[in-house]
């Protein structure tokens, strides 16, 4: 479930430093993008690199998508990858969540969350992450219901 929960990892799993989540829609270029991501990590250490890249990216026009069916469920597969790292930087584990169109998924997960809240199906209240709010079994079942597979 999409979230910004950097402060929640220590509560759920104190040995974690970070969990990086990637949305991979690059198809056959996914491996290239992974290598590019690792290269970027190194390049950001070069003084001025971030400023140069920011200037360059602002100069590139972003095309407008005018497709009326951009949220259609069958409009392309989605791959979401998560990698968990220890405080030492060691990769502890990784998993992939595969399914249909990410835009359609966003609507599904938002609606599911609203239904859970309305029904009182919540384990923890307040500012928390989806894992602590709904529990892993409920999140897994919801994603299976949406047609996503975890591997």
Descriptive overview:
This protein has 151 residues and is an alpha+beta fold. It has one domain. Strands 1-2-3-4 form a four-stranded antiparallel beta sheet, with helices on one face. A hairpin with a 4-residue loop joins strand 2 and strand 3.
Q: What radius of gyration results from the CA coordinates?
A: 18 Å
Query: Assembly state here?
Result: single chain
- Total helix count? 6
Element order: H for helix, E for strand? HEHHEEHHHE
Arrangement of strands in the largest sheet: 1-2-3-4
- Ends distance: 15 Å
Q: Structurally, how many domains make up the residues?
A: 1
Question: What level of helicity do the residues show?
Answer: 40-55%
What overall geometry do the principal axes of the alpha carbons give? globular
Mean pLDDT: 79
Low-confidence runs of at least 5 consecutive residues: 1-7
Question: Hey, roughly how much beta strand do the residues contain?
Answer: 15-25%
Write down how many β-strands occur, each being a DSSP E stretch of 2 or more residues: 4
Biggest pleated sheet: 4 strands, antiparallel
Which structural category do the helix and sheet elements fall into? alpha+beta
